[in-house]
């Protein structure tokens, strides 16, 4: 999406290279680290870190209004709101704030065209219940295993009946089949993640391998999944 991408070198440190498929070739993009505390964003007071989804959406809308007033040359551009993961909740809320602001006649008026979400988190129950059908569609589990899970669990994978032994067994098999798959991107390798510092106040879900592979030590032939620029 961005102008640069990371190119993992073979036996050397990664470097940044120009992304030939960057969205910036056809569009102007503003990346917002929101709410305060994510990415490079910060608050000047402790109260600034107290947030909610609705408040974050209002703050994002307020930011866009101020930015467009300071850069009026972009007011004529069509606008799309985009996000991923938890953005599946926030992006529609920001789009709604803009739409309601336009209807109320608030300035500046934005040429909102729609919104885009990728790998979005919307409803925990529905999201988790779709993981088994998705694994089947992506050929991560067999037809037989999916049919067993589907018939025994009846589509309820997030909170299965603890008395339904057949369902629990099927879900255990699904877990075993997908345990070495990187959940965020099934086509990428599942690497060992390290904590940036040992003392973390809140728990993080890490994907730790018992036998992690040193990816940089592998030859190009051993890394068919690795993206690299053409020479």
Automatic annotation (TrEMBL):
Q: Which PROSITE patterns match?
A: CARBOXYPEPT_SER_SER
Q: Which Enzyme Commission number(s) are on file for it? A: 3.4.16.-
InterPro entries tied to this protein: AB_hydrolase_fold (IPR029058), Peptidase_S10 (IPR001563), Ser_caboxypep_ser_AS (IPR018202)
**Which biological processes are named by the entry's GO terms?**
proteolysis; secondary metabolic process
Q: Where are the transmembrane segments?
A: none
Coiled coil segments of this chain: none
Q: Which UniProt keywords apply?
A: Carboxypeptidase, Hydrolase, Protease, Secreted
GO molecular function terms listed in the Swiss-Prot or TrEMBL record: acyltransferase activity, transferring groups other than amino-acyl groups; serine-type carboxypeptidase activity
Q: What's the name of the protein?
A: Carboxypeptidase
């Amino acid at each position: 999406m961005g102008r640069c991408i990371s190119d993992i070198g073979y036996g050397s440190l990664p470097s940044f290279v120009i992304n030939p498929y960057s969205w910036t070739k056809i569009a102007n993009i503003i990346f917002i680290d929101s709410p305060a505390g994510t990415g490079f964003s910060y608050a000047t007071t402790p109260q600034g870190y107290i947030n909610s989804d609705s408040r974050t959406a209002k703050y994002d809308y307020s930011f866009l209004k101020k930015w467009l007033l300071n850069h009026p040359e972009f007011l004529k551009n069509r606008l799309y709101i985009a996000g991923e993961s938890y953005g599946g909740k926030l992006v529609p809320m920001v789009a709604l704030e803009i739409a309601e602001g336009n209807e109320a006649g608030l300035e500046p008026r934005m040429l909102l065209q729609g919104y885009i979400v990728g790998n979005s988190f919307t409803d925990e129950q529905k999201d988790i219940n779709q993981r088994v059908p998705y694994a089947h569609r992506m050929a991560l589990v067999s037809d037989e295993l999916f049919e067993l899970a589907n018939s025994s669990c009846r589509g309820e994978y997030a909170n299965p009946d603890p008395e339904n032994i057949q369902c629990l067994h099927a879900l255990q098999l699904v877990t075993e089949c997908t345990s070495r798959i990187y959940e965020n991107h099934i086509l990428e390798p599942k690497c060992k993640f390290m904590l940036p510092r040992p003392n973390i106040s809140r728990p993080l879900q890490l994907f730790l391998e018992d036998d992690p592979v040193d990816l940089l030590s592998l030859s190009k032939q051993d890394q068919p999944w690795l993206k690299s620029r053409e020479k």
